[in-house]
Here is the input.
Amino acid sequence: MKIMLLKNISGLGKAGDIKEVADGYARNYLIKKNLAKSATETAIREVEMLKNKKEKQETDRKNKLIELSQILSQTTIKIKAKQKDGKLFGSINKKMIAEELKKQNFPMNEDLIILSKPIKEVGEYEVKIELGHKINTGIKVIIASEK
Here is the structure.
């Protein structure tokens, strides 16, 4: 019997997949527990339309992230901090960089910012940002003396 899965089932497939299974397994278990339904032509077309819609949304999202990465790669943020002889009193961390990006209309979750260790000296730094979908970029961060 041809069925369409309504939920992910380990060993069988993911929601939306069309599978051929034994009639008894389909009627007595999968359909009865609302894990699948009979794969009619209408149901198959409906699933294909949903898959196409999801793929388009993913493509659009990925394109927006690529645009954002290009804009961010041209972005420079400046953070002023108290210092003595080039050493900062305290340090610059992910949260501070995220806040500065928000001020420049780039709402950014600090978890996306990759900083191996907090910045503790005045200078210019390249900070990596992972936007998702394997799209990474970098921004220039300038740490300047607060006067």
User: Anything to note?
Assistant: The mean pLDDT is 91. Helices lie at 23-30, 41-73, 94-103. The radius of gyration is 25 Å. Residues 112 and 131 are 6 Å apart (CA to CA).
